[in-house]
Specification:
The protein is an alpha/beta fold. Helices cover 36% and strands 26% of the residues. It contains ten helices and 13 strands.
Length: 279
C-alpha cells in the first residue's frame, strides 16, 4: 500500500500540489476573541487581513483537537497501513505533540509515525513535497524518512517583515528578540534554525530587505526548488518572482500565500523566499 502523508496548514503548500500528491492537511485553529476558524478553510486570506487591520481584538492561534487528528488518521487507515506525519517545528507549536498523542487513539494495524520537521512555511513544505513524491513513487516509510533527513539540510528560508511586533506578541520571536531593542527604523530579516526563529539580517528600507532575500537565493550554486510567499503583499511577490526568474526557471517557482495562522504571527507585510538546493 502507498504511504499516506499528513502535514499541517503551516506548511503553506500550494493547493494544486496538495491535490496532485494527495497530501492531507490538518488545519491549525485561529481565533478572534470567541470566534473560531479553521486555518485556510473557514476564513480566506483576504478576509483575515481585512479583519486584522480593523479588529480591536488581536487574533490568536491554537492546536487542533486530538479528535481532528484521530479522524484524519482513521480515514487514511482505511486505504493504507502506513501514515507518515510531518509537523511544524515542535519548538514553535504544540501541533507535533498533539499529532503524536492522537496517533495513540487510532485502533487497528495502521502504523503512524510523526516527524518533527524543525521547520515551518515552505521550508517545511519542501520536505513534505519530497516525502509525498517519494510515497507516490512507491517508497517505503524508511526510504521516505531517509529522503527527509537528506533534504532537511538543503532547505532554508529568509523572511522580511515590516515589524516583528506580531511575532513578539505571539511568543515566537526566539533570538530575533535582539532586533526589538533597535532605536532605528529597520526592516528585520529572519530565518529558522534548529526549529526556532533567528535573526538573519536587517535593512534600512523595505526595498533593501527585498534585495537581501534575492541575494540569499542567488547565493545557491544549485537550486532544486524555489518558493516565494507573501502575506498581503502580492505586488512584492510578483516582483520577486520576476527577479528570481534570472537564476531559476520562472515557471517552476512556487508562489503561495502564507495562511492566516502564519499571518497572525507576522502581520501583512511578510515576504518570504524558501530554497531547496546546495550552496
Amino acid at each position: 500500500m502507498t504511504v499516506k502523508i499528513v502535514t499541517d496548514s503551516v506548511s503553506d503548500i500550494p493547493p494544486d500540489i496538495v491535490k496532485e500528491l494527495d497530501i492531507s492537511i490538518i488545519p491549525v485553529i485561529l481565533r478572534f476573541g470567541e470566534e473560531t476558524f479553521r486555518d485556510g478553510i473557514d476564513i480566506t486570506n483576504d478576509q483575515f487581513y481585512e479583519r486584522l487591520a480593523t479588529s480591536k481584538v488581536m487574533p490568536t492561534t491554537s492546536v487542533p483537537s486530538l479528535d481532528l487528528f484521530a479522524r484524519t488518521y482513521a480515514r487514511l487507515a482505511e486505504v493504507t497501513d502506513e501514515i507518515l506525519v510531518i509537523m511544524v517545528s515542535a519548538k514553535l507549536s504544540g501541533i507535533y505533540n498533539a499529532a503524536r498523542q492522537s496517533a495513540e487513539l487510532v485502533e487497528g494495524g495502521c502504523h503512524i509515525e510523526v516527524i518533527d520537521s524543525g521547520c515551518a512555511v515552505m521550508q517545511q513544505g519542501f520536505l513534505v513535497i519530497k516525502a509525498a513524491e517519494a510515497a507516490k513513487a512507491g517508497a517505503s516509510p524508511g526510504e521516505i524518512k531517509d529522503i527527509i533527513q537528506q533534504t532537511l539540510p538543503r532547505v532554508e528560508m529568509r523572511a522580511a517583515f515590516d515589524t516583528l511586533e506580531y511575532l513578539k506578541r505571539g511568543g515566537r520571536i526566539g533570538r530575533a528578540q535582539a532586533f526589538m531593542g533597535s532605536v532605528l527604523r529597520i526592516n528585520p530579516i529572519i530565518t529558522l534554525k534548529n526549529g526556532v526563529v533567528e535573526p538573519a539580517g536587517r535593512a534600512r528600507s523595505r526595498a533593501k530587505a527585498i534585495d537581501q532575500l534575492y541575494e540569499f537565493a542567488a547565493s545557491y550554486k544549485h537550486i532544486e526548488g524555489l518558493a516565494v510567499e507573501g502575506a498581503a503583499c502580492p505586488e512584492d511577490v510578483d516582483r520577486m518572482v520576476e527577479r528570481l526568474g534570472a537564476i531559476f526557471p520562472k515557471e517552476r517557482i512556487l508562489r503561495t500565500r502564507t495562511t492566516p495562522v502564519i499571518g497572525a504571527h507576522t502581520g501583512p507585510g511578510l515576504l518570504l523566499v524558501a530554497v531547496m538546493g546546495d550552496k
